[in-house]
Specification:
This protein has 228 residues and is an alpha+beta fold. It has helices at residues 2-20, 27-51, 59-81, 83-93, 105-122, 126-145, 165-175, 203-209; strands at 153-159, 179-186, 191-197, 214-221. A hairpin with a 4-residue loop joins β2 and β3 (191-197).
Length: 228
């Protein structure tokens, strides 16, 4: 019985564990992997700066894309070297919680892109990472050139006349094809109207300001979803 236990233990240690130590880490292989990952990550850094030129640009987030790609590549290279290390890293990474919300969907795409580059390069398939980057760049630049629908604007009218809505809505509809009252806030002697309308010039604001009873007019750009 003891002989069988020893034999099973030897088989488990020598065959199972050794079979998963498939790759020996060398300094040159690690340096090459991280260098290629860094080059592709720097390319992502430049492309992110170009694509987000019209929106809010976060340099810290852009720098973090390069760091995420390099860290992911280093983890994947280490995992391939030994199954024991890989199990330990899985357990360590399982307790990590990211509490910073990524609000821009485009930022989320670039974040997954950087992670994917790290995984692919760490696995030793740098050519696939280059192909992915080229195809994704073409897709992003082409879609970025497609003209978007103009976002609606928000018109806020404050007036002391409770019946002001009947006077201002004809003017609003003349200036915009789409106009809809979204909110009405009324007190005993004042009313506030919130109207969604298509993008317009400042002439409407001047016309509404000249109506008796109107105290203030504000035209605010809408940063939410666009509508037809």
């Amino acid at each position: 019985m003891n002989h069988l236990v020893i034999t099973f233990s030897d088989i488990f240690k020598k065959s199972f564990l050794n079979s998963w130590s498939t790759q020996q880490l060398t300094l040159s292989s690690v340096v090459i992997c991280l260098f290629v990952t860094m080059l592709i990550a720097l390319y992502i850094f430049l492309l992110y700066r170009i694509v987000t030129r019209k929106t809010f640009y976060s340099k810290n987030f852009n720098i973090s894309l390069v760091g995420v790609a390099l860290i992911t590549a280093a983890i994947i290279v280490t995992i391939q070297s030994n199954i024991v290390i890989s199990l330990g890293m899985v357990g360590a990474l399982s307790i990590v919680r990211f509490r910073t919300a990524v609000k821009n969907p485009l930022d989320l795409m670039f974040l997954f892109w950087a992670i994917s580059i790290g995984i692919i390069c760490g696995a030793g398939h740098s050519l696939y990472a280059v192909i992915l980057s080229v195809v994704l760049t073409i897709a992003v630049l082409l879609l970025d050139r497609i003209p978007t629908i103009k976002s609606p604007m928000i018109l806020i009218v404050n007036a002391s006349n409770l019946d002001i809505e009947q006077q201002i809505m004809p003017l609003v509809k003349q200036s915009s094809k789409h106009a809809q009252v979204k909110a009405r806030n009324m007190t005993a002697d004042s009313v506030s109207l919130t109207i969604e309308l298509n993008a317009t010039d400042g002439q409407l604001v001047r016309q509404l300001q000249g109506i008796d009873g109107v105290t203030s007019v504000s035209l605010i750009a809408h940063n939410g979803e666009t509508s037809l």
